From TrEMBL:
One GO CC annotation: mitochondrial inner membrane
Keywords assigned: Lipid biosynthesis, Lipid metabolism, Magnesium, Membrane, Mitochondrion, Mitochondrion inner membrane, Nucleotidyltransferase, Phospholipid biosynthesis, Phospholipid metabolism, Transferase
Main location: mitochondrion
Family: Belongs to the TAM41 family.
Catalytic activity, EC: 2.7.7.41
Keyword field contains Ribonucleoprotein: no
Domain of life: Eukaryota
Protein name as catalogued: Phosphatidate cytidylyltransferase, mitochondrial
Subcellular location: Mitochondrion inner membrane
Span of the signal peptide: none
Length: 280
């Protein structure tokens, strides 16, 4: 670390962190912790551990609702990482790398795998979805670029019948169900949507009656992320000051454009619209 390095950081109360991890009310810090993180200071034993496990289970439930009946483990990890970018205003305005999800999965395959797969396989929480491994696919470059281990990417199948879909919806985070309820015309307190409550069951039944529970889940997730990203962008402008904020947004724009330029300009330096003998 040197004097020229710019660090973006935030401060949050432990109670607010625990609430977002457990409920997905804002899905800001919870979304960041869907990915591997490195604690700078060790947390006291047990502090926030249960909330973070709930956060990862919430992510798995949402990903399984969004995924088709058959999916690979790479598709699962990309869906998990991408949850907190759905609806992100930075992507909408080109201030974020559109390939960021793929880059995170490519660079953190082993860590993501160890975060999520034991929960999926060992918890028994998803038994109603009748998850089973039905095959394997060839390792991708993303998998080979991790620790170098010869990891096989399995092909999974889940049930998408009405009973299984209803069970999957009941596993969603209360904050996500709250957004879904509002879109369905239900105005209920977030606290009434805890697992197994009568209100939660009513909202799940209404979501199933809509005929498009998967789309409803995706749209509701994007709405939460959109609100949060707009708020955070505005807060960042106020906190960083004009110059720093413009510099930061400019760097984000550059990161978004750089991969597109790399694809458009061949290694030899000729642009896609030029000819060897000159440009007509």
């Amino acid at each position: 670390m040197d004097s020229q390095m710019t660090i973006k950081y935030g401060v949050i109360e432990a109670a607010s962190l625990e609430r977002d991890l457990s409920l997905w009310e804002h899905l800001y810090i919870a979304g960041r912790m869907h990915k591997p993180v490195t604690p700078l200071l060790p947390a006291p034993p047990g502090l926030l551990a249960a909330a973070q496990e709930a956060n990862l289970h919430n992510a798995l439930a949402a990903a399984l609702v969004l995924l088709p009946p058959t999916f690979t483990e790479e598709e699962l990890l990309r869906t998990l990482v991408g949850l907190s970018y759905r609806g992100d205003i930075r992507l909408a305005v080109g201030a974020e790398d559109p390939h960021k999800v793929a880059r995170i999965v490519d660079g953190s395959w082993d860590e993501l795998y160890s975060m999520y797969m034991p929960l999926l396989i060992e918890s028994g929480r998803y038994s109603a979805l009748k998850l089973e491994v039905v095959g394997q696919v060839a390792p991708t470059s993303a998998m080979r670029s991790g620790s170098g281990a010869n990891i096989s990417c399995r092909l999974w199948r889940q049930s998408k019948d009405a009973e299984a879909q209803g069970a999957a919806l009941q596993l969603l985070a209360p904050g996500l169900l709250h957004e879904m309820a509002a879109r369905l015309g239900y105005h209920v307190p977030l606290e009434h949507l805890a697992p197994s409550t009568s209100t939660q069951k009513e909202v799940v039944e209404a979501a199933m009656r809509s005929g498009t529970p998967q789309r409803l889940t995706a749209d509701s997730l994007a709405a939460i992320v959109r609100r949060s990203s707009i708020y955070q962008a505005a807060a960042g402008l106020l906190a960083a000051g004009g110059g720093k904020a413009v510099q930061y947004v400019g760097s984000k724009m550059a990161k978004a454009v750089r991969p597109l330029l790399a694809m458009a300009i061949p290694a030899g330096g000729n642009s896609a619209g030029s000819k060897k003998q000159g440009v007509s």
